């Protein structure tokens, strides 16, 4: 296939990831208004996992994971889907979708800190430090504005859940880089989703009794179908494809677009506030993330990704 055609498909995959992953924050916020957040996340990952695993086993004739692969998949499922996706979904009970998406975009900053603190990575460059300063300054602007417009008594709890989710994704990325296994990434993703659904159902029941399936509103089922088809399958597959076919610097642009998509759509669909200060703080934050991301790629040539919602 001509390289131009491959690149065009890569750019299309990038557009799909950039836009639709941004919409999933808003869709999730709509869904959890009528169902426990962890239960919705569990149903979503269960359905998406069954679809992907069944496809690769029945159509592609892939073998079942080995015991070593299954152990790796379980760790990844906990980090990427139980804590990262589950807690970020839960945070939407307490904070705006746009803010949760923006905190998720801080992933590169936390990755640098974790590498520096736990793995004695090289000292941060001036470019990295500048990015950190801008990221923190931008988040401070957004936090101040959101607190002013948000009357939720559990706002701080929602922020904490989002931060833990973002850190979990960071540890998952580091774990992947240092403990990779020879397994198709799409097949691996399906198993991670399937395994994570078991833990999410258990945690959901522990936090709040599960809602009987027949009592789940039709609107929520539509949201779940959207999250499965568009968020967990189409967008995730597009994300992996774009990372394979495009230069990392281009493929990672989605990380700066997702939060903006969530913030722009939230006022239209879930009546969240979008002020000039929130938009300004978001742009400053994403500029800081870009600088940190760029400094990492410049020095290490490693992939940086954002948590999927």
Mean pLDDT: 88
N-to-C terminal Cα separation, in Å?
Answer: 33 Å
Q: How helix-rich are the residues, as a percent range? A: over 70%
- For the record, the count of structural domains works out to 1
Main attributes of the structure:
mainly alpha, 309 residues, 78% helix, disordered C terminus
Task: Outline the structure in words.
By secondary structure, the chain is mainly α. It has one domain. It has helices at 3-31, 37-58, 67-91, 97-104, 107-118, 126-149, 155-178, 185-207, 218-245, 248-251, 254-269, 276-300. Helix 1 packs across helix 4 (97-104) and helix 3 (67-91) runs antiparallel to helix 7. It has 12 helices and no strands.
In short:
The protein is mainly alpha-helical and about 300 residues long. It has one domain.
Provide the fold topology.
Layout: H1 3-31, H2 37-58, H3 67-91, H4 97-104, H5 107-118, H6 126-149, H7 155-178, H8 185-207, H9 218-245, H10 248-251, H11 254-269, H12 276-300
């Amino acid at each position: 296939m001509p390289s131009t055609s491959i690149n065009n498909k890569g750019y299309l995959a990038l557009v799909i990831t950039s836009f639709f992953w941004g919409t999933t924050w808003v869709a999730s916020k709509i869904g959890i208004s009528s169902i426990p957040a962890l239960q919705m996340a569990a149903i979503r990952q269960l359905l998406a996992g069954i679809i992907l695993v069944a496809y690769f086993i029945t159509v592609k004739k892939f073998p079942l994971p080995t015991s070593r692969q299954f152990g790796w998949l379980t760790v990844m499922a906990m980090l990427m889907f139980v804590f990262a996706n589950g807690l970020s979904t839960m945070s939407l009970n307490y904070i705006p979708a746009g803010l949760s998406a923006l905190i998720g975009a801080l992933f590169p900053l936390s990755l640098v800190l974790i590498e520096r603190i736990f793995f004695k990575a090289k000292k941060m460059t001036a470019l990295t430090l500048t990015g950190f300063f801008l990221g923190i300054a931008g988040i401070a602007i957004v936090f101040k504005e959101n607190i002013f417009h948000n009357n939720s008594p559990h706002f701080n709890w929602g922020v904490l859940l989002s931060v833990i989710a973002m850190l979990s994704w960071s540890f998952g990325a580091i774990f992947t880089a240092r403990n990779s296994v020879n397994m198709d990434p799409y097949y691996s993703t399906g198993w991670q989703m399937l395994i994570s659904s078991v833990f999410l159902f258990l945690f959901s029941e522990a936090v709040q009794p599960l809602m009987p399936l027949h009592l789940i509103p039709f609107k929520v089922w539509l949201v779940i179908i959207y999250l499965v088809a568009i968020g967990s399958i189409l967008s995730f597959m597009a994300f992996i494809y774009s990372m394979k076919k495009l230069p990392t610097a281009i493929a990672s642009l989605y990380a700066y677009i997702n939060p903006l998509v969530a913030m722009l759509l939230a006022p239209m669909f879930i009546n969240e506030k979008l002020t000039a200060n929130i938009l300004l703080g978001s742009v400053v934050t994403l500029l800081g993330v870009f600088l940190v991301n760029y400094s990492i790629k410049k020095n290490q040539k490693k992939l940086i990704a954002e948590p999927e919602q």
